[in-house]
Please model this.
Amino acid sequence: MKQLFVVVSRNIDEEVKTVVCEDFIEACATQAGMLVGMPADVVKNILKKEEILQIKENIEKVGRDRLANDEEEVYIFWLPERSSMR
Model:
C-alpha cells in the first residue's frame, strides 16, 4: 500500500504551503527545509538518524510532527492510501 506524507507550513502572515511526499525521508527533509529555507535535497544529506526516529515516533503517537520557530510552523501528517472509499 502506498503511503503519502503531507507537509504543511504556515507562517506568521497565515500563508500556507503544502507539499505531498511519497517517501518518509523526503517528507522529513521537506519539513526541515521549509523551516530553514533550504531545498529538501540539501537537507536530506544533513538529517540525523535520531531526528528521523523522533519524527517517526511523533507521527505514530500523535498523528503528526511539528517543527517551529518564531515566524513559521511546519507539520508532517501521514495519510495511508486506501484502495476504495467506504
Notes: The radius of gyration is 13 Å. Residues 3-80 form a domain with the Ubiquitin-like (UB roll) fold (CATH 3.10.20). The mean pLDDT is 92. The longest strand covers residues 3-11.
